[in-house]
Amino acid sequence: MNEHYYRQNAQRFFTDTVSVDMSALYQPFITCLRSGARILDAGCGSGRDAKAFSEMGFTVEAFDASAELVALARQLSGKPVARMRFQDVAAVEKYDGIWCCASLLHVSEAELPEVMTKLAIALKPGGVWYLSFKYGRGEREKDGRRFTDLDAAGLQKLVDEVNEAISVSLANNKADIKRQAGSKNKKGSDFVLETKKIWQTGDFRIGRGDEVWLNAIIRKN
């Protein structure tokens, strides 16, 4: 359903989002990153944020599921944006930061734990992860798109589920994971996601300020 929507409305979505000032959301994310850090813009949409991070001096990779948006994002950002889905993420401890702005909300509630586990494994120890959802609870459809809404309690429950899954996944993939110095005697469960900050904002798009978003910064320890 969502892919059909973006196939039909990619240019409209691009026009509506590409010029939105996201600097207030960038700040709590980039302050956690070293200069030149590697960022994954997961579900990059218009390519607006990938372009912004690249201009800040970060090394940026990006992907989106929509072929139409991928083409537009490549043109805007100058980056080789990949066409792929969250379910295709297979990197292991590659990224210093992962940016999921208004993108994971299109993943079904049933698939979110697995998808977020894949992204958590792709994040380096000590890395940071920004994500946002429409504020609420449960799944819904609107204007031809499916959404999974979360509140703070729902997000924390999801993070707890992912932490449990990470321990199992890291154990199963231990041959592929490069341990930090001095960590050889630690258990895989030492790699956990910690919710550092959860806050709400209005929509930054003109005329939509009454729509509430849930934002979070998560660190992988």
SSE blueprint and pairings:
Layout: H1 2-17, H2 23-30, E1 38-42, H3 48-55, E2 59-64, H4 67-77, E3 82-83, E4 95-100, H5 112-122, E5 123-134, E6 138-142, E7 145-149, H6 152-172, E8 193-202, E9 212-220
Parallel strand pairs: 1-2, 1-4, 2-3, 4-5
Antiparallel strand pairs: 5-9, 6-7, 8-9
Helix pairs in contact: 1-4, 5-6
Description:
The longest helix has 21 residues. The protein is an alpha/beta fold and 221 residues long. It has six helices and nine strands. About 3% of the residues have low confidence.
Give the terminus-to-terminus CA distance.
36 Å
Q: In percent, how much strand structure appears in the residues?
A: 25-35%
Low-confidence stretches are: 183-189
> Count of DSSP E strands?
9
Task: Please identify the structural class as seen in this structure.
Answer: alpha/beta
| C-alpha-based Rg, rounded | 17 Å
User: How do the strands of the widest beta sheet line up side by side?
Assistant: 3-2-1-4-5-9-8
Largest sheet: 7 strands, mixed
Query: Roughly what percent helix?
Result: 25-40%
Number of helices: 6
Overall geometry: globular
List the secondary-structure elements in sequence, H or E: HHEHEHEEHEEEHEE
Q: What's the overall average pLDDT, rounded?
A: 90
